[in-house]
Amino acid sequence: MLTRAQLQEVSDTMKQMFPDAHCELTHQNPFELVVAVALSAQATDALVNKVTPGLFEAFPTVEAMAAADVSEIEALIKRIGLYRNKAKNVKALSEKIVNEHGGIVPSDRASLEALPGVGRKTANVVLSVAFHEPAFAVDTHVERVSKRLGICRWKDNVRQVEDTLMKKFPREEWSQLHHQFIFFGRYHCKAQRPGCEACPLLHMCREGKKRMKSQQVTT
């Protein structure tokens, strides 16, 4: 596990590398964000951003989405993996927002997680981005980076990773640092080809050190 000074270095480095890190899912309001995040499960943000403009043009309000046929939603998002199940969830969560929340996306965790297709990660993103509530959503990038750097244990599940990150970093930094972890993992510390040789955190990265040593042995 990293020391307090090392954790501060991680935070400072993330801020320096990606000062403008942000949610890359295109959206205009909390409802569009909920839908976009729900669609992004096991799909890239870039792919989601290709299908949501057409989806929101066809069904511009939560009421319109709730009234849509599932087949219509499917046709507009079929390029995304698991699109049939996601289409059902999008319609169902829209209906729930209309029927139980007066057409307004709820701003509390319990109500968000009660929406079909919305888990803790999606709720965290919506709370943070749409409602500016401190949250540390853990996606594959956040999980990978935090484990490679030794902030979390390899065996930790997603909830344990989230709890550890919230414990290690100040509450007021969670939301922005969450995006910076994502950018770091998406554009630098990639799953298959991480930029270890040019990484300012290599000296504390257990995965990076192993990779570099392996390269030296093979050469």
UniProtKB/TrEMBL annotation:
Family as reported in the entry's similarity comment: Belongs to the Nth/MutY family.
UniProt EC number: 4.2.99.18
Biological-process GO terms, alphabetical: base-excision repair, AP site formation
Organism: Exiguobacterium sp. (strain ATCC BAA-1283 / AT1b)
Gene that this polypeptide is encoded by: nth
An MF annotation (GO) of this entry: DNA N-glycosylase activity
Protein name as it appears in the record: Endonuclease III
HAMAP family, A to Z: Nth
Necessary cofactors: [4Fe-4S] cluster
Superkingdom of this protein's organism: Bacteria
Cofactor info, note text: Binds 1 [4Fe-4S] cluster.
